[in-house]
Structures are given as structure tokens and as C-alpha cells.
């Protein structure tokens, strides 16, 4: 650099050097939750020797984690932008029925799956359009579509489950084989992580969540981003419903529901995505889902009932949120 | 007015009897202004004087009801913000338009991210390495010091944040920079940091600056020329060297009294 620095504040051109331990601090939130997941897994392994080290239990655990994680990926994108999708659990039940109807109407299975996903996308589009253009809070919009979509699913299906269509190979690929769901989950986690951190879409979503006015002053189309993320979240929820349908070999109008939607939001929060918008992490969401999966699988194997599980889940969400807010504050103070 | 004829050849920006009405309200009532190349113009005035409306016309956010605008010597109607930007007009708003949770380099390339080349080009992945290097380079060039370009801007002080916002505008090849109260709510040290930065930018050349200001003394310190706006009009214009805080205060007071007299009717 040959420019003279008139302010006289000579300083080594160290701005490009990452601060010491940057890798650790870059992934600090994810590493904390990974540690929690490992400790929990170790605990359940000690208490119940069949928890991890058998094929059946690994499959079982992965199937606890996968659906929550995939829905969480969509919720994380929305939560970063300051939105939420409460209807995800209902889209989960809705999309597989569209798939069944498309298949019954003569569409090949791959096309039927796409039809299911398009139906989910339309729900997402409605969620997004109403939220963005009619300026309703997404909490209200998706609360409405939650009941609406549930009613539509129950009406279309007449309240009765259908058998999953398609060949056994296709079913295995789409979730019936033990590890199929978790492979989908990891693949989607990779894609979503790249989308969030390494594409303009993801970077702009973070910017728009942190400072909506500022982002639009910089020329970012904030409304388009929010709308797109609603579509994305709904498609992921619909896809999860389809995977789960193939796994349990039956498509149930009562599947999914609010339980799985709230578990996904919980996974996002435990993983380090605050509800306040502006920041979030896909990898954290995956680990958050793993923590929830380990808890529910572990307690099931030990024989603790669902009531106790909910007490622990509630405490875990509170603890995670308190931890995130206050540890974040301390770190920020310490850094200056 | 004597000052406005300063540099007719090297004009970065010129406005002629700009009027802006919002329904029955006249926010700008025939404002003419000039900005010479490399000049710093300070605009002073109370709330509601029309300063921000003027800025919004100059950034293409609003379009004037009547009057003409000349950018780099050519008569132009700024259709929108992107159009103004394409002509090298950048604005740093008071809220700075920074995304707090994102890093300095992300913010400096906000909506202008460098996209990676190579076989995966179609994925339009952002090139973090290039952005970090170019951001650090740009900050070096204009003498802004931060510990690391990876820091989220929420960890910076008010002055540093303002400096980053200015650096971003400079980095995007601004020829005309509009600053909306760049020193508002800033301590003396922080303000000195920004004043230093603006002086360095001026020395480097190629940049003309309009500042919306509240503090008379600071404005006379930094700006080559000042413009006083009151109730949608320019009431006074002078080279900073030829006026003083006392004189400006006097003009404002006189105008205020005149206004009270007319409204009392």
C-alpha cells in the first residue's frame, strides 16, 4: 500500500487476519449444541445399552430427527427474516394427499410427488402473499391457513388414510428404507446451508431480517425474499410429509400437525436461531433436531412417558433460549 | 447569488427551481442548487425545511413535481433509486442501512455481492474471499481502521458504523455522495473520525459530497459552501469562509420572526 495515512494511526494491515480461534468462534453456537447432543447421547447409551450401537436403534433415532430437521430448515429461513410458518404441520399432511390424487389420476409417481410439492408451494405462496402484500403478521396468516389447510385435507380425504402408491423401490428411495430419510435430511441440510451462507438469496435474507428498511434502501427486494422463503418452507414441510407417508406406508390426514411444527420451531431455537430475526443457522437447526430426537428416542427407550418428555422439552427450549440470549450478550461485551 | 457561480464548468449536480408537492403540501418550493466537482456542500435547516425531500429527489426516491435536475452536466429525470445509483449517486441514510448481524465485508457488498466464477458460476455463489479482500483494501485506501472485516457491525461503535456506511458508498464507485446527518448523536471523538474520513475523501478527489446537517459550527468546519433551507426554500447560500455561526443564527432568527409575523395574521 503506498497511500499515506494522514490520520497517523499507523496500524498493521491486519484486517484480513481472522481473529484467533476464528473457526471456533465462527461455529461456536453449533459446537455448543453439538456438545449437548453428544452428552445426551452418551447418557442414554450408558443408561440403555441399545440406544446407539445397533442398526435398529440408529434407524429409529434417525427417523426421530429427520422430519423435525427438514421442517426446521424452512422455519429457520423464515425466522431469520422475522417470519414464522405455523401451517407447516398441516401442509405436511396436505401434500401427500395431492400426491395420491395425482397418482390416481394417472400421473407417474415422480410427477405425483412434484404435484404434491407444487400444492405445498401454492400454500406457501398464499401464506407469503397475504403476509407481505396485505401486511398481516405471519403468525396470524399462518394461524389462519393452519386451520384452513387442515380442513381441506380432512375434507378431501374424508378423514380416512390412504395406502402409499408406487413401487417398493420408489417408496424405499422416498423414505421407506431405514436410512433414506436421514440421507435426505443431510443432503437438504447441505443445500440449505449453502443457500443461506453462500448465495445472495441467503445473505439478503439475513440482511432483510436484521434491517428490513436498510436492506430495501440498499436495493434488496425484501418482499420477494420473504415470499420466496414462505414457498420454500411450505415445500420442505410438504416434502417431509411425503417422506413420512412412505416411511409409515400410509398417508394419514391426521399426520404431522402442530406437534411436529412446534418441534421444528423448537429445533431451530435450540440450534441458535432466535425468533427476533437477522441471524440463524441451518447446521444448528439440524443439531437442535438431533437433541430433540435423542431426548424423545432416549426417553421412549427408558420408558419415561410422553408427559414427562414434554416437561423436559419445555425446560430445554427455555434453557436454550436463555442461554442464547445471555451468552450472546456476554460474548458481545467481551469482544469490544 | 455569488457562490453558485463558483465552478459552472465542473458541475457534478445542479437543480433548477425544484418543486415537490405531496397533495396540498408543498415540501419544496423552488429550490435551486449547485454542487461543484470535488466540493462539499452543507445543507442546514430545521425539521420540515425540506432537506430530506430534497435528498429523496436527488437519490431518485421521489420525483420532483416541477423543475429540472442536471447530473454530470446532463439534464436528467431520476426515475428511481437504481437509476440514480447507476449515475454514481449514493446516499448514506441516518439509519445507515447496515445489517447488524452481518459482517463488515458483507455489509460493504450488500446487494453488490461478488459472485464466484468458474464451472459452478450458474449457482451464483458469493465469493467470500474476494469480498473480504476487496473490503479490507477499500477500508485501507480511505484509512478506516477496524480490527477485522469479519466482525459483525453490531460490534462497532457509532462512528465506525458510519465510516463503514460511507466506505460502502465509496466502494460502489459513488461520484456524488449524499450524507443524511452523518454526525448526528455522535461524540466529539467519533465525529472527528468521520470528519477526518470526509477530508481524506475530498483530498483523494473525484467525489462530490452533499451533507444534511444540524450543527452550524461543524458544518462550517467541513463544508466548502453552506446552504440554509427554511420552509421549502433556500434562504441563504455562502462559502463557509465568508460566513460565521453568528451570521447564520441571525438569519435564521430573522426568518423565524418573519414567519411568526405572517402566521399571526
> What would you say the CATH architecture of the domain at 7-96 and 174-263 in chain B is?
3-Layer(aba) Sandwich
CATH level 3 topology of the domain at 7-96 and 174-263 in chain B: Rossmann fold
Which word captures the global form of chain A?
globular
Q: What radius of gyration of chain B results from the CA coordinates?
A: 20 Å
β-strand number of chain A: 2
Biggest β-sheet: strands ordered side by side in the sheet of chain B:
6-7-8-3-9-10
Order the strands across the largest sheet of chain A as they lie in space: 1-2
Describe the global form of chain B.
globular
Query: How would you characterize the largest beta sheet of chain A?
Result: 2 strands, antiparallel
Number of strands of chain B: 10
Overall pLDDT metric of chain B = 85
Quickly give the structural class of chain B.
alpha/beta
- Which radius of gyration of chain A do the C-alpha atoms yield? 22 Å
Main beta sheet strand tally, sense and closure of chain B:
6 strands, mixed
Helix-strand category of chain A: mainly alpha
CATH domain topology of chain A: ABC transporter involved in vitamin B12 uptake, BtuC
The CATH C-level name of the domain at 7-96 and 174-263 in chain B is Alpha Beta
Quickly count the domains of chain A: 1
User: Helix count of chain A, per DSSP?
Assistant: 14
Assembly status: heterodimer
Describe the structure in your own words.
The complex is a heterodimer of chains A (336) and B (265). Chain A is mainly α. Chain A has 14 helices and 2 strands. Chain A has a two-stranded antiparallel sheet. In chain A, helix 3 packs parallel to helix 8 and helix 12 runs parallel beside helix 14. The longest helix of chain A is centred in the C-terminal third of the chain and has 30 residues. The N terminus of chain A is likely disordered. Chain B has a domain of 180 residues: Rossmann fold, CATH 3.40.50. Chains A and B meet through helix 9 and helix 10 of A and helix 2, helix 4 and helix 6 of B.
